[in-house]
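Record type: monomer structure entry
Structure origin: computed from sequence
Chain ID: A
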Amino acid sequence: MAPDVVTRIFEPFFTTRDSGTGTGLGLALVHGIVTDLGGAIDVDSRRGEGSIFDVYLPRSDAEVIEKADHTAPLPRGSGERVCWWKTKKPLMLLIEEMLAALNYEPAGFTRPSEALEEFRADPTRFDAVVLDQLMPG
């Protein structure tokens, strides 16, 4: 990354992606979590070579929380129709497969305008609609 980019990467809504393809919240969220825990992040970035992020968290002497025993089965659907969108097709297809395996009827889209058009055509067709707070377009 260029030095001027490195100085801004933890700012909320800062992104180097094209408009509508990134929210700029990922690193801001990570920074917030790490600093809330009393930690810090060190960034070493060299343009064209890559970046290294070192995350420092304070030591804790608190007792280790045991992993919960999850003997209950995953909740499964009964054919409910779910509409959502993901801009990256491989991720959209993966979510579609996962929902189908859980007995939902998935309807995934790679463009929010298509999802909105499908919903507007027949809103009662879907039992649930999953939206991103900052949908492009």
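Annotation 1: The beta strands are 40-46, 50-56, 81-85, 105-109, 128-130.
Annotation 2: The first helix runs from residue 3 to 6.
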